[in-house]
Structure formats: C-alpha cells, structure tokens
Amino acid sequence: xxxxxxxxxxxSLITFQHIRGMSLVIPDDxxxxxxxxxxxxxxxxxLCTFVAILGNRYQRKLNRQExxxxxxxxxxxxxxxxxxxNGFIIDINPSSEKLAGMEKRDIIGLxxxxxxxxxxxxVTKQRFERVLTGEVVExxxxxxxxxxxxxxxxxxxxxxxxENKIHGIYGIMMNITKEKRNLEKIHFMAYHTPLxxxxxxxxxxxxxxxxxxxxxxxxxxYLDLNEFKKTNDRYGHLAGDAVxxxxxxRLREVDNQGVAYHIGGDEFAVTLxxxxxxxxxxxxxxxxxxxxxxxxYQEFTLEVFASIGIARFPFDAKTIEELLQKADLAMYASKExxxxxxxxxxxxxxxxxxxRFKLEQDLKEALEKREFEVYFQPQFxxxxxxxxxxxxxxxxxHPEKGxxxxxxxxxxxxxxxxxxxxxxxxxxxxxxxxxSWTEAGYEFEHISVNLSPKxxxxxxxxxxxxxxxxxxxxxxxxxxxxxxxxxLINLERSIDSVRELKKLGISISLDDFGTGxxxxxxxxxxxxxCLKIDRSFIRNFNSDSKALIQMIIQMADNLNVKVVAEGIExxxxxxxxxxxxxxxxxxxxxxxxxxxxxxxxxxxxxx
Length: 607
Ligand code: C2E
Ligand code: CA
Ligand code: CA
Fold this sequence. Notes:
Blueprint: H1 2-21, H2 37-74, E1 79-83, E2 89-92, H3 94-100, H4 104-107, H5 118-132, E3 137-144, E4 150-162, E5 165-175, H6 177-191, H7 201-213, E6 218-225, H8 228-235, H9 237-253, E7 259-264, E8 267-272, H10 277-291, E9 295-297, E10 300-302, E11 306-313, H11 320-336, E12 342-344, H12 347-366, E13 372-381, E14 387-398, E15 402-404, H13 406-416, H14 418-439, E16 446-451, H15 461-468, E17 479-484, H16 491-503, E18 507-513, H17 520-525, E19 530-533, H18 535-540, H19 543-558, E20 562-566, H20 571-580, E21 584-586, E22 594-595, H21 596-604
Parallel strand pairs: 11-12, 14-16, 16-17, 17-18, 18-19, 19-20, 20-21
Antiparallel strand pairs: 1-2, 1-5, 3-4, 4-5, 6-8, 6-11, 7-8, 9-10, 13-14, 13-21, 13-22, 14-15
Helix pairs in contact: 1-2, 8-9, 12-13, 13-14
The structure holds ligand C2E and calcium ion (CA) (2 copies).
One calcium ion is lined by residues 391, 450, 482, 511.
C-alpha cells in the first residue's frame, strides 16, 4: 500500500518534471499527409480509449488508497518533503511549512540545499547521493528557517523506488532543537565550572587524554592562587567569587594559543600546544603578570598571585595520570618557594615530595610517640633587666635527625591540620608546668604559647582551655597566647575568641607585628595586651627598620599596649630598644630557648 502511495507521488514527480522541462514542438515530416495516417489515427484513438479506461480504473483504485493515506501525510507532526533526484523539492506536508516558516508554494521548486547553512552543505550533499543509491540514511542536521534561525532536525531519508528505479527521495524530519539545546546545556554543565564558565577538570582530563592518545606534544600549566582562602575570609565569599571570575576572564583573554580550565576552587590550568622550555616560560610569566594585576572589588583593591607548575608531554610523563600529577607536583613546589613563583617539573621534585610525605607520616606518629618537647626562651623587662617569664617554643626530638625547630615542620602541621592537636598538647604541657612552677613558688609573670590561626577557626579553644584547667583555675592569668596577624583575617570571629580568652584571664600578644595585615583599626578593636615586633626589624637594624621600630613603640604606647622585641642579639640592639622605651625583650643576647629543666635551673630557681 505504501508503494502505491509512493507511486502516486512518483507520478506527480514525473508529471512535475515533465511540465517543468516541457516544450511542445511537433515536427512535420510529411507523415500527417500520408495515406496510412487515418487508420493509424483510428487505431491510436482506440488504444488511447482502452488505456484511458484501464488507467481510470487504476487511478480510481489509487485515489481510494490515497484517501486512506493522505491524513498520515497531511496531519503528520513530522515534516515530510519530497525531493526529485536532482534535489528539487516537489511536495511537502503542512508540518514542513511550519518548520520552514514559509508557504508551500514558495517552497516547491526550491533546491533542498536552500535550507542548509554553509557548514552542513557538503556532508548533506554526500548523504543525498547515498540515498540515490537506494540506501536509507538517518542523520541530524541544522537547517535554517525563513527568519534565518538555525533549527536542529533529525532526518530520515528514504529513496522512492518504483520498479527498481529511483524516482526521488522522501525526507521525514523532526524538529529536535529543544532536546538538542537541553542536551547541550547538560553537556556544558558537565564540562564547565558554573562560576567561571571555563572548561572543568573532566574536560581537561579528556582533552589531555586525547592529546596523549594522538601523541601530540603539549604542556600543561597548573595554577594555584596564593592565599585565596584569606581573601575569602577577609572580604567574604562574594569577593572570592569575583576574584575567580576575573582570573578566569584574564586566562581566557590572554592571547597564547592555549586553552584555559578551571579545575575547581582556586586552581586553574592552561594547556599549550608547545613544549619548548623558553617559549612556555615566556607565556607562563605573561599569564602570571596578567593575574597579579590588581582586582577591584567594591571599594577594595585585591591582590592575587598564582603559583605555577608546568609539566610537558611526552618529556615528563607518558600517561595522563602521570602528567597531571607532575604538573600538580611542580605547582606544589612553586608554592613552597613563595607566592607568584613558576617551576617546571623535574625529577628531584618527586624526591622532595616523597620526603614531605615521609615527614607527614612521621609527624602523625610523633605526638603518640611523645617526640615533641617544649623549650622555653626567657623574656625580660628591657628597662630593668628583670626576668618576666618565657615563650614556649616547640621542638621535635626526631629519632634520626635530632632536635628539630618548628621552621622545619610547622608548615606541614598546618597543612595537615595536626597543628591543632599539637597546639592543644603544648597548652596542656604549659598549663601543667605553670601550675607546678607556681606551686613551687617560682617567680614569673607569664608563659607565652604560640597558637596557629587554625585554632581560631574552631570555637572550642576556650572550652578546651577551661577543661584542661579545671583543677587549677588560678593559673590562667599566667598564660599568654601569641597569635599572628593571619589569625585575625576573620576579624569578627577572632574578636569573639580573643574576648572569651580574655574573660578567662589569659593575656593576648600579637606576634610578628609589622609583617602582615594588621592595621591600626584592628588594634583598636582587639583587646590586645602586647605587640611583638617582628624579628626581621631587629635583625636588619638599619635606619629604616629603626624608624619603624620607633613608630611601632610610639603607636603601641598611645594605644596602651606593651611592646615585646624579639631576636635581640647585640648590646647595640638592646641599647636602642631601651632608648625607645620598649617594654619587654627576648633573644640570644639573653638566652637561647632552653629545655624545661635547664630553663628551671637557670631562670626560675634563679642564681
Ligand atoms: P616566633 O613565635 O616568632 O618565635 C621566635 C623564634 O625566634 C623562635 O624560633 C626562636 O627560637 C627564635 N629566636 C629567638 N631569639 C632569637 C635570636 O636572638 N636570634 C634568632 N636568630 N632567632 C631567635 P623557633 O623556636 O624556631 O620558632 C619558629 C616559629 O615557629 C615561631 O616563631 C613560631 O611562629 C612557631 N612556633 C614555635 N613554637 C610553636 C608552637 O608551639 N605552636 C605553633 N603553632 N607555632 C610555634
Ligand atoms: Ca611567638
Ligand atoms: Ca615572632
């Protein structure tokens, strides 16, 4: 039945072609005037009448069948078009008018390529040729409507074959634009980071895998923003978002043939189709320079730096995991070198990472194995030389390496979060000693303990100290807690914590003053007892640092805050500090940090 339906349209196709190409010229070569013309004419008329009667009956049958199928064609929600073997449209159903936004009479006679955008032309012509060989071909293609909008359609092309001959092609089309757009949206979301719209880690992995599979040499640049968490804490998450968006924009706009990715958080990556060291280095520095341009957020000017690590395929790695790991490693190493650094992967980095991993493992066990110890460095009233107390400083009695100072391991404790456990251990140790030294009748004012900013991220610090001190509450006024300026980044939270500590009778010192973020307004808001001038001012001891020391002491005096100078090594430094009216001091000039018993003997029991 379908073939009959096809036949009907094939007829119209043939008719249509006939009309389009017809020119009715009847040549007279004497035949009309010949004697056989009349019988021939009669015979022909008879034959024609016979064929006409047969044809009519056949046509009636056809018409009846067409009536069955016509609604299938006219009311079909899919667009159905008929094309002649030359590619011209010869019939369409009403849905096609809707799809094209044109009327049937304007569509009939157009070539099918009329609706194809440039990028679909070649491939669709090839498909058309395949259908003409008798194949049914299905595909998705974009067409444009009369308004020029691009529409995605799913097409099924069926050859119209009658008596082994191809008379044309059916195109059945479904508008899949909505589904396509939804799919594209889902695909975009799966492969991009929503905040920055940059391709994400999954996309990076797939792109890198593709390059590796095709053995295309390239380099992978990993970027990690420095101190991004501080920006978040200090100015809020919206500021953090603004920084990430701006960095993404800059990475996207830097003209370097690379592709930028946002891996997540404050990590970005760029792939470059280059492996030559100098060329990559130049581009990487250009990226770094672009990133560190100030970012304006509301009334603030934010500074951003990135640590950059670079690994190259195939020199540094043969597999995707290895390459990602090595770029990450290089980035990690550059971070260790300070902000805004750039490092290419090299094999010694791997060794360093293994060492670092070992250090982490050892540190995790050190607390259990009781390898930590607290040393005490005495502090003095500078003007009188009177013993005041001490700063408790952490040491690690490493089973192989001997006594290690915190500079070697404190950053690992910080990174792993172990610093909180170790800090709590130090507080417990020191409070126990304060108690026993007080019981023993030794004279001292304060013992200072260094606490990491991490302690201030939790609200449990006060609670912990109260718990430890349950038995001997009277001692807390002898405890001093040193916090660095970085603990004050989330000012509201730190003000609360500091107030709570002060309520317990604990005094607070601001350590390493002059190196970080502190501003005078912070000092006004925080109930600080002491400022510790950073050791670097006393170490440098030139006219600039002297002027700064002078300024800090004056400022502290106005705020009614005492000043502790640390790192005093020489008589000259001490004399200058006495002259400036500094309150307290500590340093090798007086004593190095000492183990507990030595400190007791030398400074608590007195000479
Ligand atoms: P900090 O709080 O600035 O401690 C002072 C550092 O200067 C100590 O180094 C001390 O030994 C050293 N120092 C003191 N006087 C002199 C001097 O005259 N000359 C020189 N060159 N150095 C001097 P240390 O003990 O190695 O501590 C380094 C840092 O580790 C400390 O700096 C502190 O930030 C941190 N730290 C120490 N103990 C702890 C702790 O228990 N917990 C935490 N979270 N951090 C700690
Ligand atoms: Ca300190
Ligand atoms: Ca210090």
